[in-house]
Design goal:
single chain, 97 residues, mainly alpha, 55% helix
């Protein structure tokens, strides 16, 4: 007896739905897990495209921290925080370049 791919897919999907019908207490758990997975994936995509210190290709930008704008907050939420340059650090930075 051979089972085609379509039949196997129906068995898997049907088995999952039947399991949920028998065990209704799993529905909230599966819903929360799906919500958490969607949130984690969307957060990763958000950080990948909006944060300047997250890189995919190290050869094009080996030191991403050098291109950060110090006046722009890097945290997700910044409350009452102002950045002021430290003169000693600026002097050291100029000397090391």
């Amino acid at each position: 007896m051979s089972v085609t791919a379509a039949t196997a897919q129906k068995m898997v999907t049907g088995g999952f739905v039947q399991m949920l019908r028998k065990r209704k207490e799993l529905i909230p758990l599966i819903g929360f897990m799906a919500f958490a997975a969607t949130g984690a994936t969307s957060a990763c995509i958000y950080f990948l495209f909006t944060k300047p210190d997250v890189i995919l290709n190290k050869t094009s930008n080996p030191e991403p921290w050098e291109r950060l704008d110090p006046t722009k907050p890097q945290k997700l939420i910044t409350i009452n925080q102002q950045w002021k340059p430290v003169e000693e650090l600026e002097i050291v930075k100029k000397l090391t370049k």
